[in-house]
Structure formats: C-alpha cells, structure tokens
Amino acid sequence: xxxxxxxxxxxxxxxxxxxxxxxxxxxxxxxxxxxxRAMACFDRAARAGDVDALYLMGKYYLKGIGCTxxxxxxxSCLEQAARRGHAGAALKLGSCFAQGTGAPQNAELAAYWYRxxxxxxxxxxxxxxxQLSRDSVSQNPSPRTD
Length: 146
Hints:
Layout lengths: L2 H9 L3 H13 L7 H13 L3 H13 L7 H13 L3 H13 L7 H13 L4 H16 L7
C-alpha cells in the first residue's frame, strides 16, 4: 500500500493503518521521520483498541520519544496492555516496578508482572525474575546463625 493510501486510512481511524503509518514515521520508511506524528498514530490506534499501540506508547513515554518523557504515563499504558495479554508489556512493567521507574519500587509487583509475562510466553521474563530474586537476596541477606 502506498503512503498516501495509508495516510488516508489512518486519518479515518483504521487502527492497522495507524500502526503501519506510526512504524513508518518512526523509522523514516517511505516518509520523513516524525516521532511526534508517529506517537499520534499510535495513540489513535490505542484508542481504537490496539494493544500493541499501548505497549509502544508505554515504551516511548519511558524514553521521551515523540513526546515528553512521562514515566507514570508509561506505566499506565504498559499496565493496560499487560492486563489485556501483551507479554512484552508485562515484562517491561515488571522492570518498571523492579527499578522504581514511573511507580514506587515494589519487588512483589515486579515478580507478579514477570510471572504474568512468563505465562504469556515472554521467555526473557525468566531471567528478569531470577535477577529480581538475586537482587532481593543480596539486599536482604538472611541472618547468620553461628
């Protein structure tokens, strides 16, 4: 599909077209790179129910790509996507809670979201959960019983 057709469909609110156009705008494929416009496309797709768009918005809010950096907004987008079954969003959300990014640091919530990511098929979440466990043990060593 050519870029003009894609833009017309996106302007009508077609979520698939919004996603494609957003990706092209982010990468500068067939159109000049425009991060802000890409975020607007992802926002339109998210409002139409596209869970991948919510995930991408969360990632870009964390980094401030195409928008003002908004860690709390990122956590909100990621949580919505994770609750709707997006494995990558669950993994990233776990990381936010593990690091205290956009939400208070909370190892229990981090572990919850990592486990959810595992159930959803995100294999990288195993390593994240293991690292969280190691970090927890190193921060709270068990008392010596000499």
